[in-house]
Design goal:
About 70% of the residues lie in helices and about 0% in strands. It contains twelve helices and no strands. It has helices at about 5-35, 40-55, 55-60, 75-85, 85-110, 115-125, 130-135, 145-165, 165-185, 185-205, 210-230, 255-265. The protein has about 270 residues and is mainly α.
Length: about 270
């Protein structure tokens, strides 16, 4: 049997090898499935239009509700400024979003106390199957997966706020929620609503005032962010179309559940 002093370095070496293999494999698959897409032309159109016509071009552009103006477009502009209008930079940016999501899942697990899971979860996610890259757009630089990066950051900051009570984390929850929510309404249904309802439930269940206060402040931050999003940043982004969510009828719930299980399974095959 191996001496205990050799087990830890050996395990770290093995995890490092698996991590490097996962990074390499995910980058190769990202490059393979990258292709033209209507959404991915948005930042390039805005970049060219702003240079040609100035800031007034924004009000003339025909945006969709998921516009990514404050969340993802600035990151694309940074890539264009450094590397020019080259597809290679956008491919790498999308891959970094994918890797960032995997790392954030591990950090959330670690914050919740699941230290072993925190090590293996990012490695596991790096080896997602073809479905995540092709129909799932998991590595596209301009997709809901970029918003997912913001959502996981908001979730991580929410957990950190509840655990450590540092106002900086709560401020980040508010700021990131507004930036990502104005840019993509999908964030409200997938992250802000569940986090807000969880905070409200914890507020109702907790009896001690000291435990209730952080949940109350988190709930207030989510509500405030939702209000700012609905006002489109107090009218500053009024040229972007608004979006209203509607609760699906109960008859569609089984259909949605079926596709949820199907898509979840497709991520790893």
């Amino acid at each position: 049997m191996l001496n205990f002093s050799f087990k830890r370095p050996l395990m770290l070496l093995l995890l490092g090898f698996i991590g490097c293999a996962g990074l390499y494999a995910s980058l190769k698959v990202t490059i393979h499935f990258f292709g033209p897409d209507a959404d991915i032309t948005l930042p390039e159109n805005l970049w060219s239009g702003l240079h040609a016509y100035g800031w007034g071009f924004l009000k003339d552009y025909n945006f969709a509700p998921d516009n990514w103006l404050l969340s993802l477009v600035p990151l694309h502009f940074l890539v264009y400024w450094i590397f020019g209008l080259n597809p290679e930079g956008i491919v790498v940016l999308g891959w970094l979003f994918f890797v960032g999501n995997a790392v954030l899942c591990g950090l959330i697990a670690k914050t919740l106390g699941a230290r072993k899971t925190a090590i293996f979860l990012p490695l596991f996610l790096l080896f997602c199957g073809r479905y995540a890259y092709a129909p799932g757009f998991a590595s596209y630089a301009l997709s809901h997966n970029g918003t997912n990066l913001y959502g996981l950051l908001i979730l991580l900051c929410s957990v950190q706020w509840i655990k450590n009570r540092r106002i900086g984390f709560l401020s980040l929850v508010l700021l990131l929620s507004i930036v990502a929510g104005v840019s993509d309404p999908w964030l409200m249904a997938t992250y802000l609503l569940p986090i807000g309802l969880t905070a409200l439930l914890a507020l109702c269940v907790c009896k001690e005032e000291g435990q209730r206060r952080p949940y109350a402040m988190l709930f207030a931050a989510i509500v405030l962010a939702g209000w700012v999003i609905k006002t489109q940043c107090f009218g500053l982004l009024s040229f972007v179309p608004s979006f209203r969510f509607h609760l699906a009828p109960l008859s569609l719930f089984p259909v949605h559940a079926y596709y949820f299980v199907k898509c979840l399974g497709g991520l790893f095959f």
